[in-house]
């Protein structure tokens, strides 16, 4: 379903005893109080809970492109504007949407950044990416976080040379972080466009923030106005 471009969701459940819940809550609260690597520690605690779950169902929702997306992206590219797609979708879904919207042309090479979890793996994968020329980059939020921790300048420099960049499984915080990184490492103006509540932080971080009003867009606009 993800390869067909559908937004997929796995629904599962798990019953906890009171003792199990108390243990989880203690570890979760302790992770949230960590000074170093707070996000990683919180994610590890949550991941420890999401095991041996009972599968309930799978869902796949078609997310149709809005009118004139393809010609709009083409006009922006012809104007010399670099486009980055920041999304919470799975890698397969994000790649499919990037192709269907013509953010990545069908005959263009795509470098899918392999999952990395430490400095050594990030170094090897960056070297492999450095040998590629004129290809779009697809990277997950987890791998992006590792690269930025150890090789922030090198990663941003390489990514900015790509004709297109797709960051998948991105959290709202990471979306805003990427916008700020581009502002710090380049002299370029940034424009962030979003239509959902999880795009608000990214919209606020950019030099120019645009909230699109649509089926989800009213959420982005409402949250943005409230935060302002």
From TrEMBL:
It catalyses: ATP + H2O + phospholipidSide 1 = ADP + phosphate + phospholipidSide 2. It is a multi-pass membrane protein. Keywords: ATP-binding, Lipid transport, Magnesium, Membrane, Metal-binding, Nucleotide-binding, Translocase, Transmembrane, Transmembrane helix, Transport. InterPro entries: HAD-like_sf (IPR036412), HAD_sf (IPR023214), P_typ_ATPase (IPR001757). It comes from the Eukaryota. Its main location: membrane. Its cofactor is Mg(2+). The keyword Metal-binding applies. Pfam families: Hydrolase. It is an enzyme of class 7 (translocase). Its EC number is 7.6.2.1. It is found in: Endomembrane system. GO terms for biological process: endocytosis; phospholipid translocation; retrograde vesicle-mediated transport, Golgi to endoplasmic reticulum. GO terms for cellular component: endosome; plasma membrane; trans-Golgi network. GO terms for molecular function: ATP binding; ATP hydrolysis activity; ATPase-coupled intramembrane lipid transporter activity; metal ion binding. Belongs to the cation transport ATPase (P-type) (TC 3.A.3) family. Type IV subfamily. PANTHER family: PHOSPHOLIPID-TRANSPORTING ATPASE IIB-RELATED (PTHR24092:SF50), PROBABLE PHOSPHOLIPID-TRANSPORTING ATPASE (PTHR24092). This is P-type phospholipid transporter. It comes from Lates japonicus (Japanese lates).
């Amino acid at each position: 379903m993800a390869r067909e471009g559908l937004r997929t969701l796995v629904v599962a459940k798990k019953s906890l005893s009171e003792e199990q819940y108390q243990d989880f809550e203690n570890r979760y609260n302790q992770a949230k109080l960590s000074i170093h690597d707070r996000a990683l520690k919180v994610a590890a605690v949550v991941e420890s809970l999401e095991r041996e779950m009972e599968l309930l169902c799978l869902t796949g929702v078609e997310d149709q492109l809005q009118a004139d997306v393809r010609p709009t992206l083409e006009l922006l590219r012809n104007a010399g504007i670099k486009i980055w797609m920041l999304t919470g979708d799975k890698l397969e879904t994000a790649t499919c949407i990037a192709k269907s919207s013509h953010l990545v042309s069908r005959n263009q090479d795509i470098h899918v950044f392999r999952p990395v979890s430490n400095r050594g793996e990030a170094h090897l994968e960056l070297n492999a990416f450095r040998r590629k020329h004129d290809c779009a980059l697809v990277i997950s939020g987890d791998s992006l976080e590792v690269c930025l921790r150890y090789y922030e300048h090198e990663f941003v420099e390489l990514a900015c040379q790509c004709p297109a960049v797709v960051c998948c499984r991105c959290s709202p915080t990471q979306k805003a972080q990427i916008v700020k990184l581009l502002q710090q490492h380049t002299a370029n103006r940034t424009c962030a466009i979003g239509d959902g509540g999880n795009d608000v932080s990214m919209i606020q971080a950019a030099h120019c923030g645009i909230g699109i009003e649509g089926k989800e867009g009213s959420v982005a606009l409402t949250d943005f106005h409230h935060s302002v």
